[in-house]
Structure prediction request, 224 residues.
Amino acid sequence: MTPNQGSGTVRSVRDWWITGGMTVAALSAAISSFAGLRSLASAAGWPEPLAPLLPLTVDAYAITATRVWLTRDTGSAGGVRRFARWNALLAMGLSLVGNGLWHLAEVGMLTVGWPIVVGTGSVPPVVLGLLSHLAVLRGQDGGPPGTTAVLSDPAGQNASESETIGDREAEEPLLTAARAADVRYRETHDGRPITRDALRRELGVSTARAGDVLRRMQRNRDEA
Prediction:
């Protein structure tokens, strides 16, 4: 057995432990957080059937913002990833503070006054506004910085589409990775060229960027 094979086996076992530990921790956190925030909502005057909406809102907020923050499809144009990161941290903070307030109130160290009532009642509309803004930003995200608009030459004709993705030298590593991904894809798909969506997943870029790279690869093959 080679060292690489040995290390691969160890990594596989370790991943199972990590997955199991994260699953247990996630279930514990979700159940305890849900109970605390639901109790806080009830104490703040929410009708009992509606009290679970507070933890559900906070959890949905955290999951959505974290997904946008960490997914490879999210570029950095317009600060989308940065805005998603701050929203994910804010959602975690809301859960932490909400559960802390409830436990303080439960042991008699805090009275549920009007600030808590107003604060809990404001969570759903504020979260809706922030997630709506995040969704709009992500919809406008055309890819990482360096993407430029299509240029026109003096004769009024559009410049080569390859120039729309920035400097050629800066794009060479991306093209190299794209060619390698295309080779791997052809090996497992009966020689068919890689699709735009498959290339997007392989490179971790936006759909628009993957389309640009795919067109440039095709043009290079035609020129060769």
